[in-house]
Amino acid sequence: MKKTIVLYPGVAVSHFLPMMQLADELVDHGYAVAVALIDPAFQQHTAFPATVDRVVSSKPTVRFHRLPRVELPPATATDDGDFLLLGYLDLVRRHNECLHDFLCSMLPGGVHALVVDSLSVEALDVGERLNVPGFVFHPANLGAFAIFLQLPSIRAEGEPSFRELGDNPLELPGLPPMPASHLFSQFLEHPESQVYKAMMNVSRRNAQYSKGFLVNTFESLEPRVVNALRDSRCHHGGPALSPFYCIGPLVEKADERRDRAERHECLAWLDRQPERSVVFLCFGSTGAGNHSVEQLREIAVGLEKSGQRFLWVVRAPPVAIDDDDDSFNPRAEQDVDALLPAGFLERTTGPGVVVKLWAPQVDVLHHRATGAFVTHCGWNSVLEGITAGVPMLCWPLHSEQKMNMVLMVEEMGIAVEMAGWKQGLVTAEELEAKVRLVMESEAGSQLRARVTAHKEGAATAWADRGSSRSAFARFMSDMDRTANIR
Q1: Other Cβ atoms within 10 Å of 293 Cβ, number
Q2: What CA–CA distances, in Å, run from 379 to 71, 194, 248?
Q3: Which of 16, 73, 99, 228 has the fewest CB atoms below 10 angstroms from its CB?
Q4: CATH 3.40.50.2000 fits 4-252+462-484, yes or no
Q5: Are 66 and 37 contacting, i.e. CB atoms less than 8 angstroms apart?
Q6: Range in 7-21, 54-68, 219-233, 414-428 with the lowest mean pLDDT
Q7: Does 257 have pLDDT greater than 60?
């Protein structure tokens, strides 16, 4: 009988998809995989439920179980469907008994191990009660995770809070100087606030209760922090860190088998463009990537002035921000065409394409015509850019994306920063200049060379005797040993 691993993914596209890539690897290595799902139907934003449905239908060898829905307080979700941290933690907590019942239902064969998302760490208590070894899956990079794990131990009582530090840098082993202002927003709240304490608690529980950490990165991409975490001196006197396994990149692959009739129309346009000639702009799968009308117009002007071919995925802001402007519809679903500068779409037809809401990002990045990627720095997108060998322009929006940007620019050398994000507006002039830099200059060629080297490193990591394949083998060995001695 196959050993059964239960995966408990986070309730967000960026957390769910990499764990489903992990599911594939476990199945390929002979394990049975069951996925416990918190029902995504409560979300007002449709991207996550649609993603879950697509993945469930595509993985017949994986057992998916939707946990019973629980009653949620009205304030659990924000208006746009994104969860605040406290609401998310409450959601996971309310599902613990449902998860417990599901694990119990798998008797007599039982559960070999439980792997939970890094923000769902309270679910490890469920595994502990049932004597099931629990591991944590972190869908992002090791650098941001190392910061997350160390924050509770690096600010002594009486020292300025992270909030008070502002842009002053944190100096952590194996990492470039990280401005305190770039941390997760919850760490920048008042230290006595409920959300700050909750985030610190999640960090401590990650560090103390997991049997090990699976991280969606590969060693040659982040060698300094890998070595630093292996050195006990990086823990600042805190508890010894559980083993960590760099098993990335876990990303979806370009669908080269897709029937041409099913291909998105933007791919047919890319087919007609010269190699490495197109700038691709896309800002993630959630509503957080919706820019203001003013920002959309700056992007449009900058793209047009740059003279570069472009493929731009646009989401309209949910409401009008200028009631005196009659050029657009102030309903929730605005007309994107009317939000852009007059005549922009007509003038750029041919060298440019505007796609509303969604494009097949992985397929676009792997297309020979794509030459640069303007990204919000979500880690899935970063890995997709790396594995496609495309240099990037960083425009962070939220979560760990500011930290990712520092790592991409300062440590990995694969991107340039759109500095205007700090003021809340990237000007047309900056966008034009940065796009030209990446597409036309020697500095851009150097970026491309470095990202190409990391692309090759990503492929090597999962090759025979590669670092990620070896780390995955260590994980399976440690997991089997821990399960057998319980």
Answers
A1: 19
A2: 32, 27, 11
A3: 73
A4: yes
A5: yes
A6: 219-233
A7: no
Percent of the chain as helix, strand, coil, to the nearest 5:
50, 15, 40
Cα 163–168–169 angle (5° rounding)?
110
Query: Averaged over 81-90, what is the pLDDT?
Result: 71
Whether the link from the prior residue into 108 is cis, omega within 30° of 0, is: yes
Residue ranges of the domains in the chain? 4-252+462-484, 260-460
Q: Quick one: CA torsion of 364, 369, 371, 374, rounded to 10 degrees?
A: -30
pLDDT at 486 over 90: no
Taking alpha carbons only, the member of 193, 164, 1, 3 closest to residue 84 is 193
Q: Which tokens hold the place of 388?
A: 């496609």
Q: Which pair of tokens denotes residue 382?
A: 């970063």
CATH class of 260-460: alpha beta
E strand residue ranges, 334-406: 352-356, 370-375, 392-394
Tell me the torsion sign for CA atoms 284, 285, 291, 295: positive
Report whether 155 contacts 183 (CB < 8 A). Answer: no
pLDDT for the residue numbered 322: 44
Nearest to 285 by CA among 359, 204, 191: 359
For residue 171, what are its two tokens?
Answer: 């100096």
What six digits make up the tokens of 477? 């060995």
Q: Angle of helix 467-484 relative to helix 442-461, nearest 10 degrees?
A: 40
What letter does residue 77 receive in the DSSP assignment? Answer: B
Token pair 């597409």 is at which residue? 439
Average pLDDT on 140-162 reads 86
Q: What is the pTM of this model?
A: 0.91
The residue to which tokens 């304490």 are assigned: 197
Per residue, the 3-state secondary structure of 433-452, as one string, reads HHHHHHHHCHHHHHHHHHHH
Query: Before 249, cis peptide (omega within 30)?
Result: yes
Greatest mean pLDDT among 38-42, 109-113, 480-484 lies in: 109-113
Q: Give the separation between CA 458 and CA 66, rounded to whole angstroms.
A: 33
**CB contact at 8 A, 411 and 417:** no
The answer to whether 4-252+462-484 and 260-460 have equal CATH topology is: yes
Query: d(Cα 130, Cα 37) in Å, to the nearest integer?
Result: 19
Residue 38 backbone zone (phi > 0: left; psi -120 to 50: alpha; other: beta): beta
